[in-house]
Design brief:
Layout: H1 41-44, H2 59-72, H3 79-92, H4 97-100, H5 105-116, H6 137-153, H7 162-179, H8 193-202, H9 208-223, E1 249-253, E2 259-265, E3 277-282, H10 289-299, E4 310-312, E5 318-320, H11 323-337
Antiparallel strand pairs: 1-2, 2-3, 4-5
Helix pairs in contact: 3-6, 5-6, 5-7, 8-11, 9-10
InterPro entries: DNA_brk_join_enz, Integrase-like_cat_sf, Phage_Integrase-like_Recomb
GO molecular function, one term: DNA binding
Keywords: DNA recombination
């Protein structure tokens, strides 16, 4: 049976990732949007209008409200790109700061249409003076959620009602129908066991970096995990409250005395914030995640609070594995072997029926 692994590219256009910063369009400098990390934008980017009081005017209540608001948003890094895109739209269409927060339905509806529009479907005369950098409809919906969360964080109510969202989704479905079938490249084929074998033949798992790549690849494959759940966005982004650490894995045997590994994911997209998702890895033959994990622990000794998937540099410093670094490494290997690309996260179980694709 052919096993699948990684989700094919879903965007219909050549776009940056939702959390990425690969945009060619730039924001105009503003003291209301100071330079800061993506995860801090929702807190540090402000509006000119004073927000209405949401509690009684007492220092105690203001403090509790601020603590509760910050604690509600466990991972704010995904909102940064959406807020940036929103302010670029506002700059292009000369939306005043006073109209950006709170935002009206017509502004957010226009933002959604602008963000998802492919210039090839627009008459040239209508494009005059308008810069476009389209993203997928899925990404647009995530960006609207980012703007909504920004309103909450700055003390404003939700900018869109249920009826407003229905209207925006109606428009987005229309754009999706117009642009259907437009892909920069066909969907990437799933990862197969043959690809993992090629990866193993190339990696030197006695080296810290390669041992980490091998362990995270097999764990993500057999555990059906998103690649973002076994990696971090940057070295400094590691957070023991959000990412897997060495103490989050336990080895044991089941009632049949078969070994397995139990991983407790502190944060996952498929569970509510604050809840733990359990992943179980079982023993396999030549591509065994348990053996890869034990090898990682031997090659890269680390403390309980260190990243689970980590490697050691030349000075012996334990480093978390950065997502893009890992993907570039795996892409390079698989492109050389098979001409395929290793994509970002595991497909759902329906992918098990996909046939393998040969180059």
């Amino acid at each position: 049976m052919v096993m699948t692994a990684w989700l094919p590219q879903s965007s219909i256009l050549p776009t940056p990732s939702v959390g990425g910063e690969t945009s060619q369009l730039q924001m105009k400098p503003s003291p209301l949007q100071p330079a800061c990390r993506a995860e801090e934008r929702i807190f540090q980017w402000k509006g000119v209008n004073p927000a209405p009081m949401s509690t009684i005017n007492h220092p105690f209540m203001k403090t509790i409200y601020s603590l509760a608001s910050h604690a509600t948003l466990c991972d704010t890094s995904g909102y940064g790109a959406g807020l940036r895109k929103y302010h670029i739209f506002c700059d292009i269409f000369s939306i005043t700061e006073s109209d950006r927060l709170p935002a009206s339905f017509k502004i957010l509806h226009s933002f959604a249409l602008w963000a998802a529009t492919d210039p090839e479907f627009i008459p040239v005369e209508a494009l005059e003076g308008v810069r476009l950098e389209p993203i997928s409809v899925t990404a647009v919906r995530k960006y609207l959620s980012a703007v909504r969360a920004w309103h909450f964080m700055q003390g404003w109510p939700a900018p869109l009602s249920d009826e407003d969202l229905k209207c925006i989704n109606f428009s987005l479905r229309g754009l999706e129908n117009i642009q259907v079938g437009r892909r920069l490249m066909p969907p990437r084929p799933p990862i197969t066991l043959q690809m993992l074998k090629a990866l193993r033949l190339t990696l030197e798992i006695g080296r810290p970096f390669d041992a980490c790549i091998w362990a995270m690849a097999l764990s993500a494959f057999w555990g059906m995990m998103r690649f973002g759940e076994v990696s971090v966005k940057s070295i400094r982004a590691f957070d023991s409250k959000l990412h897997l650490k060495r103490s989050d894995i336990h080895f044991d045997t089941d009632l049949d005395s078969s070994p397995y590994a139990h991983l407790d994911l502190p944060s996952a997209k498929t569970v509510k914030a604050g809840k733990v998702q359990s992943v179980f890895l079982t023993e396999q033959k030549n591509l065994c995640p348990l053996a890869a994990l034990r090898n990682l622990f031997q090659v890269v000794p680390a403390r309980a609070n260190d990243p689970l998937f980590s490697w050691a540099d030349d000075k012996g410093n334990v480093r978390p594995m950065v997502k893009q670094t890992a993907i570039r490494c795996i892409n390079g290997i698989l492109t050389g072997w098979l001409g395929y690309l290793f994509w970002a996260f595991i497909q759902d179980w329906r992918c098990l029926i996909f046939p393998s694709t040969k180059s």
